[in-house]
Write a structure and sequence with these properties.
Tyrosyl-Transfer RNA Synthetase; 14 helices; 2 domains; two-stranded parallel sheet; binds iron/sulfur cluster; about 325 residues; 3-stranded parallel sheet; mainly alpha
């Protein structure tokens, strides 16, 4: 594959969990080996839904940056930057807001879904309606043509392509239509067995220490059939087993599956295997994090901001020429 420009982002709304690793960061680390990647901490996006309680957004920026660096996002290869430090994004957003039909934004499925889910706040705002356009601008301002997204975000990419097409029709073929790079939808359960999510407070974080992992896994519910050690279980009905799928070897998974059905392994021992494997997996992240914690990571971000800003400036100047403004 020829070298492409990859763009993606995450909101600084709290510590990243292992679902973020599975669903996004793992692909980001791979993509930076072959392509020029732009990874943005999208704090304006956080504001679209957290505007009523924005005090934590700033503090979360450094944490998110450390999460990324710890999993192996390499600032020498990838451009890591803060969305709100690139003011050119707002100008391009404004220009594009002139040509983006309201109906296109209103039909975005997440617009209605999120309004129902987050019903403790008023999301009838201009910013919330416009956030898929802001996402489009994030991508095209750095001339991104590959966007790693989960299946659930494909609609946003289709919308981005429609908006780009509209611009190109008016002002000349300038922007590439960005294409999705499908990332796996993580199937990891949280420690309470529900979907792993920050809002359920059931996450296993990338930055968790070994003792925290132990504290979280030990009390996890297992297959309810295993009331006693001698009761056989069905591993497919156990969230601990679901986590084994991501952190244990094929052989261990096979052995546990057999032993659980025969009641020849207890849940405590089964969890011990998981805790060890998870910690072995997270150890290199912890080492890298420790290294970066000793450095001034905000300087790394500032360097990335500078590079992203240069690209954004260039794009905006060329757009102004095309729009004749
Ligand atoms: S042995 Fe393991 S897989 Fe089986 S129920 Fe217990 S924790 Fe779950």
């Amino acid at each position: 594959m020829e070298k492409k420009i990859v763009m993606s982002g995450m909101r600084p709304t709290g510590s990243s969990h292992i679902g973020h690793w599975e669903g996004a960061l793992k692909s980001w680390v791979e993509l930076q080996k072959k392509h020029q990647c732009y990874y943005s901490i999208v704090d304006w996006h956080a504001l679209t839904t957290e505007y009523h309680d924005s005090k934590n957004i700033k503090g979360n920026i450094k944490e998110l940056l450390l999460d990324w660096l710890s999993v192996g996002i390499d600032p020498e290869k990838s451009i890591v930057y803060l969305q709100s430090s690139i003011k050119e994004i707002t100008e391009l957003f404004m220009i594009f807001s002139m040509i983006t039909p309201l109906g296109w934004l209103e039909r975005v499925p997440t617009f209605k879904e999120q309004k129902i889910q987050l019903n403790d706040r008023d999301l009838n705002t201009f910013g919330f309606l416009g956030y898929p356009l802001l996402q489009t601008i994030d991508i095209i301002i750095v001339r991104g043509n590959i966007v790693p997204v989960g299946e659930d975000q494909v609609f946003h990419l289709e919308l981005a392509r429609e908006i780009v097409r509209k611009f190109n029709n008016f002002y000349g073929e300038y922007f590439d239509e960005p294409m999705e790079f499908l990332t796996p939808i993580p199937k990891l359960p949280g420690i309470d067995g529900r979907k792993m999510s920050k809002s359920y407070n059931n996450t296993i974080c990338i930055s968790d220490k070994a003792e925290t992992i132990e504290k979280k896994i030990k009390p996890m519910i297992t297959d309810t059939r295993r009331k006693r050690r001698t009761d056989p279980g069905v591993p497919e009905d156990c969230p601990v087993f679901a986590l084994h799928q991501s952190f244990s070897s094929k052989e261990e998974i096979r052995e546990i599956s057999y032993a659980c059905r025969k009641a020849s392994i207890g849940c405590i021992d089964c969890k011990k295997v998981l805790i060890k494997n998870m910690n072995d997996f997270l150890d290199p992240f912890r080492e890298r994090r420790e290294k970066y914690e000793k450095l001034s990571v905000m300087d790394i971000l500032e360097k990335g901001n500078k590079k992203a800003r240069e690209t954004a400036k260039r794009t905006l100047e060329e757009v102004r020429e095309l729009v004749k403004i």
